[in-house]
Amino acid sequence: MNNSRRTPKNRNTRRSIWIAVGTVMAVGGWIVYTNWREEQRAIQRQEDVEAAVDSYLTAKTASDFDTFVSTLSIQSVSESDYTEEELAERYETIFQGIGANDLAVMDQEILLDEEADQYRLTYTLRMDTVLGRLDDLRYETVIQETEDDITLEWAPSLILPGMEEGDSVRVSFTEPDRGSIYDRHGNLLAGEGDAYQAGLYPASLGEGDQRATNLDIISETFDVSVDHLENLLNQAWVTDESLVPFTVVEEGETPEVTGVRYQRTSERVYPLNEAAAHLVGYIGEVTAEDIQEDPTLASGQIVGKAGLEAVFDSQLRGHTGGKISIVDTSDEVKEVIIENERQNGQSVRLTIDSDVQRDLFDSFENEPGAGAVMHPLTGELLALVSAPSYSPQSFTRGISAEEYSGYMDDENTPFVNRYTSRYAPGSTFKILSSLILLDDGGIDPDETNRIEGLQWSPDLPGFGNHSITRVSESVSDVDLATALIYSDNIYFAMEALDMGEEAFTESLNQLPFGDNLDLPFDMTPAQFANDDTIDGETLLADTAYGQGQVLMNLIHQLVFYSPVVNNGRLTYPTVLLNEQRENSDQLFTDESVSIVRDGLIESVMHPNGTARGLQNVSHSTGAKTGTAEVAGEEGNDTNGFLYVFDADDQTYSFVGFLEGQRSGDVIDRFDTFLDNLKPSISDYAVN
């Protein structure tokens, strides 16, 4: 009985124990779950904050200020009396003004203030500016979290540390003196020189018809429109006693004209003007495009715009001095962010001879073409001319729309640099073909080819209806010397075909086709075929006499033909005085060089030589002419080339080119220049 009464009690006790245990387990599980949920929320919160910070910093370092401002707290922006658009514009203005670029974030840290339950962001920003690099810009801000968004609190110190409401950023510059460009003798090619500011003096212009007459005379004298002069005179600040600038003129070009007065000034001058425009180039004021390409530039600065002025701009320009400061509402400097002293630019000395450059340019008489003179042993370029040309002085002073349009509308394209432009070289290329055929093709220079008539076509399947044409049929038994004297296309085509495509191509590949020659000019390398492979007998035959797909500029020709005057070695060119350029190893044998050299001299001396017109030159020369055919809209056009070297003393090698003419025209154009060339350079020793 007693046992039966104790049984329910024991069962109830056990049941209570299990309920208690279950309760404890449930409560413990809920606590674990709650803690896990809190951890997940904290992780997600951290990730959301990091994502917002990443968007903020990415936009700032990319200078994408529209996106950057969108990551900021709207309330904090509006409390500073900005709209988002206005704030983005202010950032753009300040960062462009200081030339901020290459922005990078360092030491980024996101910290949670547990007491305030609020995240804070600190980071250091590095940037380059117009005055140098800033490495230690330390920023700090609070991260604002709402149910809808995570943003960063804005304050003026987020523009530059230390800025407060009402502060602004001031940039001041001390421009360095720009370096000059000199020729080999120290003559100025580009640099500071005297000039005169021509200005209208209203009190002397008179009234009515007298005034109109005087303005007409001024317009005609200085090539300035009357409308432009009237607009200048109508400016609000002009009085009768004002001097109203309208142009700058060079020293010695200050005629006495009623109503005009002059003030001495200085400017960047180009003494050779058009004669060296493509080589030297010109300077001008920085444009928005320049700043976009190089953010370290600032509005108002002067930079090289073309030619060597542009290539050596950083050296010539030097380093701008100045400082970037934070100023308060009273215009007082609160803090100097960066300050530098100016460093004047360094000058550049060229191998160019100003007298040779001017004489060569004058020889063209504005006919389209180009010319180049090089010392064949040292590679020093003595003259580089492209014609017609333009006035760099006009661009430096601010070229008028009318003058610029005149250049652009000129069918002879004066802006084109023809000495760096590639053309089919025509028969001048036979110099190189002769050396290759002798050394690598194994031809016997005394062996003759029987050639009859003006045209020839080999009995080869790949040649089709294509035929080779020569200039003269007066000689039927043609050896190498005769082929050079008469410039026989058929002879060179025959010998190249016998040598074969593979062997001829292999020989050409030993030469610097595809090389930019390490010159400070923008020019495409020479080529002997579009894909560097001579594919087919027709192309091989045409290549041998400088047609086909051969393209070279004048400097290429001087280099590739230099072995005939430099003991079989290539002479690499330079335009910088005292720059040492090593010649190539000997590429062609002395015997081959001697044969070709003698043939080029005979091309001048022989009564039927294609270069016989140079017999008028008072010193001994060797030469090769070339007339290259170019496909035109109405049949083929021709370009005339002439390669010449001093056969006595090797003081120069020269290539001249006339667009749309033949080689005989080139000789007539340059024989006087060549006659005077040697004496003009014989009084100095080429380094």
From TrEMBL:
This is Beta-lactamase. The chain crosses the membrane at residues 16-36. Belongs to the class-D beta-lactamase family. Belongs to the transpeptidase family. Residues 370-660 form the Penicillin-binding protein transpeptidase domain. SUPFAM superfamilies: beta-lactamase/transpeptidase-like, NTF2-like, Penicillin binding protein dimerisation domain. It comes from Alkalibacterium indicireducens. Residues 50-167 form the NTF2-like N-terminal transpeptidase domain. It catalyses: a beta-lactam + H2O = a substituted beta-amino acid.
